[in-house]
Fold:
Amino acid sequence: MDLHHLRLLRELGERGSVAAVARALHITPSAVSQQLKALQRTARAPLTERRGRRLALTPAGRALASAAVDVFEALDRADRAVGAYLEDPDEPVTVAAFHSAALTYFPPLLRSGLPVRCVDADVAQADYPALVADYDLVVAHRLAHSPPWPAGQVSVIPLMQEPLFVALPTGHRLAGDDRLATADVAAEPWISVHDGFPLEGILAAVAAAAGRPLEIRHRINEFSVAAALVAAGAGLALLPGYIRVPGPGVVLRPLADIPAGRHIDVLSRPETLHRTTVRAVVEQLHEVSALRAAAP
Structure:
């Protein structure tokens, strides 16, 4: 049964006439009559009857109108329960993030006192949207030239656009250059991420620009580990410019002839953003992003 039709039946029982119902609900008497007829088609007994020129409820109609009161009362309780859940300042928020983002965002979130539950989730770029089924907020990254996140499936909140740099050991022959050409770095051994992870696309662009495949010696997703290997002379690597500070013995240099950057975004289901605590966590993520982007 349609809830609006039930409401009309209840109003007819309480107000006594179709005209009175129409005036109260700001619709025409004809619309009231048509919708009551639609309700009648779903009932097993007559709900209304003519008493002179007036339409009145039958005993079955009065019984259904009385039951409708219970229905609307239950709906009101449900609506208030949802409202209390959405506004509950202690309702936990699950936040998933790839490793370097977790290093950047999780400590400030925990210090903020917000009820967060943190999870590391380092997955291939194509797998990030599916994570919103398991976590309230997903901090994800994609290359600047990559296709956008799937429209309509997730809500996307941009956090920052972050430059990516070539990491070299401080004693490397190219460490003194302000900017690096692809022809110079393509001849070096590299530390890459695993297949399907965002930064791999930039290394593919370097190889294409240089006209030669890169020598990939190691595959490391965790940037602090990659930085340590760079410092040890194991090869060059791509490292982000904002969300972590390179370890000792490492310098960062931009590529001169290839734009290298990535988007850091928050993904979620649209309805998740109605919760007070979720919005507070998103605001905190924005504040941390702004601080990191402004840091020297």
User: Anything to note?
Assistant: Residues 59-87 form the longest helix (29 residues). The chain has a mean pLDDT of 89. The domain at 93-294 is CATH 3.40.190.290 (D-Maltodextrin-Binding Protein; domain 2).
